[in-house]
TrEMBL record:
Localization terms from the record: Membrane
This protein's UniProt keywords: Membrane, Transmembrane, Transmembrane helix, Transport
Pfam families reported for this sequence: Cation_efflux (PF01545), ZT_dimer (PF16916)
Protein name (record): Cation diffusion facilitator family transporter
Transmembrane feature ranges: 7-29, 41-57, 78-98, 110-129, 149-166, 172-191
Family classification: Belongs to the cation diffusion facilitator (CDF) transporter (TC 2.A.4) family.
Domain Cation efflux protein transmembrane residue range list: 9-202
Domain Cation efflux protein cytoplasmic residues, every copy: 210-285
GO terms, biological process: intracellular zinc ion homeostasis
A single cellular component GO annotation: plasma membrane
Membrane topology designation: Multi-pass membrane protein
Amino acid sequence: MQHQKRIILYALITGAILMVAKFAAYFITDSNFILTDAAESIVNVVASAFAFFSIWFSARPRDINHPYGHGKVEFFSVFLEGALIMVAGIIILIKSVYNIFYPHQVQELLTGAIIIGITGIINGLLGFYMIKQGKKMLSITIEGDGRHLITDAVTSAGLVLGLVLIHFTKILALDSVLSIVVGLFILYTAYKLVRKSVAGLMDEADFSMVDEILKILNENRKEEWIDIHNLRAQRYGNELHIDCHMTLPNYFDLTRVHYEVSKADEYVNKFAHIKTEFFIHADPCIPQCCYYCRMPNCPIRSHEKTMDYVWDMERVAQNNKHFATEPSPVLQALNT
């Protein structure tokens, strides 16, 4: 967690320095295009400040009011960042359209382009680093802040291109046209951030994460684990919470049931890329389970094993653990 705080703090300090540089470039050139980029840099500083707060808050231990911890505050941070980027994009579009009809003279464009180019390179390098670290640490806040910086770097690249073209062609309208293109890109990036944050707040299933968990369970599947169903997953910051039902032989005593459930938890946390908390409800098997049960020398088997299948998202998500009767040949074919 300290590493995450340091990364956000670096981004905050860097953003503040680059914001000053961009406003200096605006005062030198009197370019509205540069002004929009400078205004967006304010968003960077505000977003990084809130990201720093969310990292600190999400690290707080669980309490009575927050039994799952405080990790979801990171989704609020990403939502705020996406919303601020969206506002910046809308302002850029409005200002650019206005400047098409009411252009004004600018000066020292090459000097401004050099300053903005340097800020863009710094933001791009820092953004790629934060995205890489965010994915590594499973921090949506750091990854989101990194994508914001990449957006700012792309904006700066478009700005530099516009300033150079205007300098050599003397066509002032290019400033506004390129601003509109960059503004649309900013809005698209903002949409993706807001969409991702809302998905997390609404506990939308992270299929890639759940598929990884199921792959681990399938690869380490024990003969005693007859079935898994009614699986649901929720993500809280850099932790994943899963509850599911596991069907076990009905002649197991409580100690054996606890052992098998603990092994499933142990395997997942050993091999998964995210800390996972399992809540497993143990179900006793019934005769219908025999058709796909792998237990050898079962003392209560009433049917021969006739089918086998891999646990996938479609199966385990259903609250339906057993076939009511012996499966038909068609059903057997679909499950083998």
